[in-house]
Amino acid sequence: MSEFTKLWEEYYHIRNRARLGLIVFVIAAWTVPIPVAIIFRNRSMLVEMVAFFVAMGFAATITLPPVFRWANWKCPRCNEKFSEPERRSLTTPVWLLLPVLWRLVADSPCARCKLRSGESPDDVVI
Q: Over the chain, what HEC string results?
């Protein structure tokens, strides 16, 4: 098994865990407010809001690290982050989240050198 095949297997493993983590986080975002509201219904609104944010923070702590690990994976050709396009201004990071998450959903090439997942880094870019 070649070195780049091992790299792509690692990438596929990280990407699948990131996809699962994102799905679980979205499900938690929709389902956590219901039991929190039921448990804290007789408390003040402040206690209910704090409980909600603690529960969501716990869910994010458990489910989102694989997403960050995927987002930091380096392309074998250009050695830049595979999913992150080049930043052009200070406001770009705010709007960068949607294209990066789209790259997690779709099977996208490298954001910088356009290397498709599974290809050899030695392949010529056309």
A: CCHHHHHHHHHHHHHHHHHHHHHHHHHHHHHCHHHHHHHCCCCCHHHHHHHHHHHHHHHHHHHCHHHHHHHCCECCCCCCECCCCCCCCCCHHHHCHHHHHHHHHCCCCCCCCCCCCCCCCCCCCC
Domain locations in the chain as residue ranges: 3-105
CA–CA separation, 125 vs 66, rounded Å?
30
Q: What is the pTM of this model?
A: 0.78
Is residue 117 very low, low, confident or very high in pLDDT (cuts 50, 70, 90)?
A: confident
Alpha carbon distance 92, 32 (integer Å): 31
- Apex CA 62: angle with CA 61 and CA 68, to 5°? 70
Q: Which two tokens stand for residue 25?
A: 């986080």
